[in-house]
Amino acid sequence: xxxxxxxxxxxxxxxxxxxxxxxxxxxxxxxxxxxxxxxxxxxxxxxxxxxxxxxxxxxxxxxxxxxxxxxxxxxxxxxxxxxxxxxxxxxxxxxxxxxxxxxxxxxxxxxxxxxxxxxxxxxxxxxxxxxxxxxxxxxxxxxxxxxxxxxxxxxxxxxxxxxxxxxxxxxxxxxxxxxxxxxxxxxxxxxxxxxxxxxxxxxxxxxxxxxxxxxxxxxxxxxxxxxxxxxxxxxxxxxxxxxxxxxxxxxxxxxxxxxxxxxxxxxxxxxxxxxxxxxxxxxxxxxxxxxxxxxxxxxxxxxxxxxxxxxxxxxxxxxxxxxxxxxxxxxxxxxxxxxxxxxxxxxxxxxxxxxxxxxxxxxxxxxxxxxxxxxxxxxxxxxxxxxxxxxxxxxxxxxxxxxxxxxxxxxxxxxxxxxxxxxxxxxxxxxxxxxxxxxxxxxxxxxxxxxxxxxx
Length: 456
Hints:
This protein has about 450 residues and is of the alpha/beta class. The chain has helices spanning about 1-25, 55-70, 85-100, 105-110, 160-165, 200-210, 225-235, 255-265, 275-280, 285-295, 295-300, 305-315, 315-330, 345, 350-365, 365-375, 410-415, 430-435, 435-450; strands spanning about 50, 115-120, 125-130, 140-145, 175-180, 215-220, 240-245, 395-400, 420-425.
């Protein structure tokens, strides 16, 4: 009897250890070198250099010359944004860009916050670092890394930064925010070698945070920023205290998801679906297949032959603006396809939209930014990180007009410690830029749960 009990205990312990090991599986990665040529034999220079965005009269004159020589092409009658960027409205944007947009003024706005560069794995990584002011002596802000996506940039966060670093409510957290540019985007140097994917970016950003002296921090991301910060949580779950995201495409298709798609409309409570879930998911053919195909043509191009179309966009500011700004229309609200102006100025100003375009234009980074799709999709959809659940506490802000809708039960398949799932009142894909107040509130509420701080 005693022998049987001992054997049972040993077997139980073995099973427990194996399950625990699987539960705590972390993503593995190795250091890379993305600079030109072979890595040097000497240690990499880890100096942090202040950086300032600059422009010149020659840069602006070149832009104006190209805008003056654009070749318009008429749009079809009654086509709105259903064929892409409406040509009539594009002429208005070009006219404003040429005659009214003040790039020098926007450069001053960009330099409102401190910019820096530091070399990591052979390439210069750009970031802004915003510390809260007027904190009590001996205290510091809560470190928060915020990562953008495509076709956005660090500038997406300019509206939310003051809300996070200088909150009006004294009970709210004051954050110390670090916003890096993904290598190949904006002012971060482009990798010179093939293979720089989201896991590589996650590793580089972990090195950046360590270089800045942070042993633990919170992270937020949308679009590619979702995947980069998710990979960061998979790489070092003890370093990322909490993960907040506003984008999480449906996880790997399996039996459970298939059953929910087949029966969820008739038995929504059985699968944990809300009324909003039903409106976004059904009918499945239209909502998950047809609409996805309508909005992912760019992805197929960028995941296969980014350099071809990229060369044309790198030469033409008008082509670049049309390509980028069309996403700020439809991804903000799919109904905007039926408007002649794409609804662009309902949620954003032309100054802000064109500033984001100018970051791509002046740095010549559209090709390298699109290569990120090639690097991430080039090895298929069954990569190692897609199989490893996230056990870092996670908060999800579910904006109603997000490009892809993911119900709470689907989010929990990947994020096993989902602490909050917030159906947001309004907003789409570029949520931090479109609805900074709502996003800031959700970040505050999520971290308040983790820190167990109550509002007075």
